[in-house]
């Protein structure tokens, strides 16, 4: 048993990190357009006023807006069967609360989807990927307001109807569980904020912050469920999924305190999936909210909507695993968004993210056993510093090694019985890092000539991994050497 014949091989991107086209053709400004560049040691800053002296990397990104035909042709050359991208909400509804869409924005995505179809590439469209309009933050307070549910549904209805013959696969929200973690206040929730650095993932939230995050998440749950119901009414053939930031969490030791803590933290890993797949808040919700000292407002009919609007498939990102311990002295921050203790059996990337391919198999089995619906790994990859040689080649064997081992573990999960339907490694073309705002942290099979300060020709160059992944797809995962 290996990868099924119809397995969806491809790659993933997000509009705010690669599209560019800042304010072109009627586009409004999203929250991401107000976030500056940063580095590993210097945090990205959010500014309510866009200041000319600052570098806002989303404004140009890698200029997919003007180069989409070139980029999609490169994806087709690799043999992509699916291309994950997101819609820039403000390109279609510049402020977010308009009744009528911006036609030029609709036309742009129609052209992109038609270009994909020309090569037999299936679009996988994330409707909201850290793209809430800034106006909805400033005027309404973002997802803390139930008004955003209606604005989002108007957006969904517009794109569902506009692209019903071009798009089959949809994701309602990107990494919806990130709302509950630090930086999600601004990126995921659009919760009104003062100027300042994006909140550190390691910061301990106040009770008020927890209250806001879970209330905003509830509004997104309701919006997602209503979008699923609406999408199926518009086109019953639509496949609409959730998308969760995934991670395997291990107990650091066999001390029962560590084992119980790991189980508790994995529950928070399940929280969003339980609501979006099972259609109800999990049994442990009351105790979690009681211990946090919060109480969310649930309106009449909300729970019925959640039950009716369950997703068709479960998708998630996976970059690393973490360990957890009850020993306060041993704790330290590690990786992307999850607190943890470094696993002594694993190596780490240049950015400190621990590399654990077997953790992907573990997580796939864990999630599939829980939900029993098709799975898709829609983000996975290695952020690294790539060296452009004098002959314009890029030798990224470390990226090939990383992906090879993760693909092998996906195959093991399929042999275990997991219904895995697709794989879209993150940043199939170099793009702006969401966590640091850098270009230096590269993920792609395609090199983009641009540096952290925004300088460069934007020329596209094939890396060694480009040719390797082309071979992987052509052999349907059989040739990984």
TrEMBL record:
TM region(s), chain numbering: none
GO annotations of cellular component type: cytosol
Name of this chain's protein: 6-phospho-beta-glucosidase
Keywords from the named record: Glycosidase, Hydrolase
The keyword Transferase is assigned to this record: no
InterPro entries: GH (IPR017853), GH_1_N_CS (IPR033132), Glyco_hydro_1 (IPR001360)
Taxonomic lineage of the native organism: Bacteria, Bacillati, Bacillota, Clostridia, Lachnospirales
GO BP term, pick one: carbohydrate catabolic process
Taxonomic source organism: Lacrimispora xylanisolvens
Family under the similarity heading: Belongs to the glycosyl hydrolase 1 family.
UniProt-recorded Gene Ontology molecular function terms: beta-glucosidase activity
Keyword Kinase: no
């Amino acid at each position: 048993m290996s990868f099924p014949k119809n397995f969806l091989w491809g790659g993933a991107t997000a509009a705010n990190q690669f599209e560019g086209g800042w304010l072109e053709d009627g586009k409004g400004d999203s929250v991401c357009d107000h976030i500056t560049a940063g580095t590993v040691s210097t945090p990205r800053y959010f500014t309510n006023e866009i200041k000319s002296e600052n570098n806002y990397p989303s404004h140009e990104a890698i200029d997919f807006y003007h180069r989409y035909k070139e980029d999609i042709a490169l994806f087709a050359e690799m043999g992509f069967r699916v291309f994950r991208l997101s819609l820039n909400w403000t390109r279609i509804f510049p402020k977010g609360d308009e009744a009528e869409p911006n036609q030029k924005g609709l036309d742009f995505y129609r052209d992109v989807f038609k270009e994909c179809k020309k090569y037999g590439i299936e679009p996988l469209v994330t409707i909201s990927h850290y793209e809430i309009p800034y106006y909805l933050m400033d005027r309404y307070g973002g997802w803390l307001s139930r008004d955003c549910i209606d604005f989002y549904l108007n957006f969904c209805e517009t794109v569902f109807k506009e692209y019903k013959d071009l798009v089959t696969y949809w994701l309602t929200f990107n990494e919806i569980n990130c709302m509950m973690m630090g930086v999600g206040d601004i990126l995921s929730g659009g919760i009104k904020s003062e100027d300042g650095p994006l909140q550190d993932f390691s910061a301990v939230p106040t009770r008020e912050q927890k209250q806001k995050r879970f209330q905003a998440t509830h509004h997104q749950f309701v919006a997602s469920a209503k979008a699923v119901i609406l999408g199926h009414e518009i086109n019953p053939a639509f496949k609409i999924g959730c998308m969760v930031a995934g991670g395997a969490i291990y107990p650091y030791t066999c001390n029962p305190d560590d084992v119980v803590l790991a189980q508790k933290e994995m529950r928070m890993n399940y929280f969003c999936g339980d609501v979006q797949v099972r259609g109800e808040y999990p049994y442990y919700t009351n105790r979690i909210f009681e211990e946090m000292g919060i109480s969310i407002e649930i309106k009449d009919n909300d729970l019925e909507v959640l039950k009716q609007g369950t997703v068709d498939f479960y998708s998630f990102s996976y970059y690393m695993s973490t360990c957890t311990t009850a020993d306060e002295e041993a704790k330290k921050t590690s990786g992307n968004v999850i607190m943890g203790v470094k696993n002594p059996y694993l190596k780490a990337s240049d950015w400190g993210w621990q590399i654990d391919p077997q953790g992907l198999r573990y997580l796939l089995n864990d999630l599939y056993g829980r939900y029993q619906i098709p799975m898709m790994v829609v983000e996975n990859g290695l952020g690294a510093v790539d060296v452009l040689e004098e002959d314009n080649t890029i030798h990224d064997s470390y990226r090939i090694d990383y992906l090879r081992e993760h693909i092998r573990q996906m195959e093991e999960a399929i042999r275990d019985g997991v219904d895995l339907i697709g794989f879209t490694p993150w940043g199939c073309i170099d793009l702006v890092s969401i966590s640091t705002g850098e270009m230096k942290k590269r993920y792609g099979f395609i090199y983009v000539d641009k540096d952290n300060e925004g300088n460069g020709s934007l020329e596209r160059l094939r890396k060694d991994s480009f040719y390797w992944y082309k071979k992987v797809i052509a052999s349907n995962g059989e040739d990984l050497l």
